[in-house]
Amino acid sequence: MKLIFHFLFILPLLAETSSTEIPDKDIIKNLKATLSSDKTSIELNWKEPDEDGDIIIARSSDIIDSFEKLGISDSLGKYKSEKKSPFNSYKDINLKAGTYYYSIVQVAQIKKKRSKLYANQNFTTIGVVVPARTNLVEKAEVIIETKHLVSEISNLRLRQQDNSIRLTWTPPLEAEYTEPLYTVYRSLNPLNKQGMFDKAEKLVELSHPETTYLDLDLKKSETFYYGVTVSLKSKEYFDLEENQGYKKIYFVYNEEEKFPIKVVEEKKTVGPLKISDLKYERRKDGILLNWKAPENATMNASIYTVYEAEEKMNGKESSLLNGKAKKIGILVHPDTQFLHPINTIPKDLYYGVTVYEKDILEEKNLTENISFVKIDKSKKKKKNLSLAKSPTEAPIPIEPEKVIDSNFDFIYKNFFKKEKYKLSIIKFLALADKTEDKNLKAKCLFFAAISHYSKKEYEKALKILLKDIVQLNYDKERVDFYTKRCLERK
Questions:
Q1: 216 three-state secondary structure
Q2: Residue 273 belongs to domain spanning
C-alpha cells in the first residue's frame, strides 16, 4: 500500500517535467544553479518568461516544489524582467556551507496565489552544495575582501538594451569619502592582464557617485569584455578577476533596429543638431549643467555627451580636437541635465555638450555642434557662455540657501555634517513632524532621505523623496537627482 502511494504521488511531477513546453507565459524556464569558482557563491541562469513583470528569487535548504514551501523560503529580492532588457542571471554570494535549492516566480502569481511550479523549469531539484571553509581559506578571504572593498568595485553587471549594453556596478567601500574615478574599458579579449587593459578601448571616465554607463557605439554582433577600474588620488587600480573587475557578454545586434533610425534620419532635414542655453549651477553636491534640447531631437535616439577640459572647446585649438577634453557623461534625450559631483575647482574649467543621433558617429572634428560654459574657480555664480546665446547676456547669480529654522541649522551642523546619519534621521523626522511650515517640513524630510541615502538605505530614502510634501515644496532638481539615484541602486 505504501509503494502505491508513492507511485501515485510521483506521477503528476513526472508529467510536469517530461514536457519541455510550458504553456504559461509568466513562467521562467530552464533554471540552473551552479557553484562558482570561489566555492562560496552560486550562479543562477534561466530563460526569462514571455510576459513582462516583476520576479522574486527564493532560496531554501529544501526543494521548493509547493506554494507553502515558497512562502517560507528566503527571499533574495524582487527584480524587473522585461523582453527589452532581460534579467536572466543572478549570483548568490557569501553563502555558508550547506545545500541550496532555488525557485523563481513572478510577483503577479504570488498575489493571485496561483504559483505553478515546474521541476527544473522554475525550481531546481538538484541541490548545490557549498563546501565548508578551512580556517586558512577564511583568513585569506578576509584579506582579499578588505583590499577589494577599498579599491575595487563589485557586482559588475552587463545587460543588453536594444542595440546597446548597460553596465552597472556597486562602488567600493567608503567611496563617499575617497571619491573614486571609474574608468570603463571595452575589449574583444579577456582583461585578465594589465597589458590587456592598455590595449582595450577606453570608453569613459565617470566620477563617483555615477555607477552606470550605457555603451551605444555597437555596430555588429560580437563577444565583448567590459572592465571597470578604480582610480584613487590619480592611481588606477586594476582588478583582473573575471566577473568582478571585468565581465564577458555575448552581444547580438538586432538588424530591425536600423529601420526606425532611418526614418529618424529622413526627418532630420531642418539642420544639424545643436543644444542651446547651456548653463551651470554650483551646488553643495557638485556642478549641475542644464540645457535646452534641439527642436529636432528624437526621444531615446538623440545622444548628449558631456566633456570637461582646462582649455576652450572651440576654434583651431579646441581641447575637444586635441584630445585634452575628458568625457564625463552620456545622456539620452529627453534628459537635459547632468550633475558632475565635484567638490572643489582647483582651476578654471570648461564644460561642453555635444549632441548626435544614435548609431551615427559623433562628429568630433566639427566644433559647430558643441556648446560650452567656462567656470571660474574664484566665482560662485551661474554663467552662460553657450555659443548659441548672446555673450552680452548677464549671468544669473545663485542665491545661497537660506536657513529656515535655527533647530534645522543645529541638526544640520552637529549631526548631518558630522555624518552621524542615524541621529540626523531621527532629529530631522522629529522636526518635520513638529513644524507647521510646509517648506521647513519638506526640507527636513529631504535631508532625512539623504541621511538614509548616505547609509545606502535606498528604499527608505526613496519612500521619503516620493512624498508629495517633498516633491512640491523642495528643490525639484535635487529631489529628482536623488530619486533617480535611489531607483538605480534599489
A1: coil
A2: 261-375
